[in-house]
Amino acid sequence: MAALTAPRPLRVAGSIRVPGDKSISHRALLLAALAEGESRVRDILPSADVQSTAGALRAMGVEVPELSPDFVVRGHGRLRAPAASLDCGNSGTTTRLLAGVVAGSGFSARFTGDASLSRRPMRRVQRPLEAMGARLEVEGERGDGLPMTVHGAPLHGIDWVSDTASAQVKSAILLAGVAAGVEVSVAEPARSRDHTERMLAARGARVEVDGLLVRLRGDARPLAPLDTTVPGDPSSAAFFAALAALANEGELLLTNVCVNPTRAGFLEVLRWMGAGVEEMDRRDEGGEPVATIRVRASGDLLRGAAVGGDVIPTMIDELPLLACLATRAAGETEIRDAAELRVKESDRITAVVDNLRAIGAEAEELPDGMRITGTRALLCGRVRTHGDHRLAMAFGILGALPGNEIEIDDPACVAVSYPGFWDDLKRVIA
Fold first, then answer.
1. Active site residue 317
2. What is the pLDDT of residue 140?
């Protein structure tokens, strides 16, 4: 690489209201569909993934209007069999959660998706749903992907012990229990996202949480309708928290962000690495803790960290971003216990490490994570996203640093979770 010149300092300023939380947006639609009556939904994320859930629910007879900042879903307590396959696009959440609903609803539905989703594992929901009495035909590559047909049946209750911490598997079982009116429990090795149990309880379901065990008591009554205001997505907010931490001057305010403890691991790791992160105006909205997050410029103070264990499920989607952040932190950052990254929209371990090396960073692939050594060298090159929105945004943050010249091969793929990402990025560093 040619001799380096000192880049100008990066200054950030202003405030951002990131889009609505993707996990809560999916669940707001699903639970409104299973409720009896009208549920008002505000500030939903109108992304491609959430549109997939809305489209699938419409195909099963639910009155879901065009997604907008404020609309009403009319639920009838139950869904009906679709006339055609349910196209889930790129959304694993749509597929796995609706698999549970269909299994408990007593009809059959075939699930399809794009090439990326079709490679994602489905046995993890097949096993518990078949143990409850449903039948699933998984037709995909290696017999563990889409297309998949779920044949619903009169289900019986189950006490399921999950070998991985997965909010999608847990939610599929809980929603199958809701749809069938039977008692279920799920025990996990670590705490996964708990939006489903929080939102079910808020709608009248009898949910009990005891450490790593969640139990849904059997109830034949439909859920009660409930108005929902979707808070900002912490995974989307993380990109701008990282940008502010990497900056030399200024601060950013991230308003109305969900700070659920099962989602807040990235903010905690930022603090470990020396960033100035503060929560303000913390409050509870619809069972979810919400706050404004202030992140101060900390670029020269950032240091590497060892990240693994119980914090991993609370920041699994932010790990590619952490790897990019680590290239500008002093010393070494090691990410372990994250083998789940290999079965996301892409194999995020291999993809992140390959891309870091392609732009001149020092990175090593581990079986369950990666190791990154910080550098002050300018990073330049082309990033292959494999259509993965998290990779595009993570490397987009790294590319925003002065002196770096990083080309993203598919910038439009951010529409899956954050359609306005590039515009917001330009605004806060203008």
1. yes
2. 80
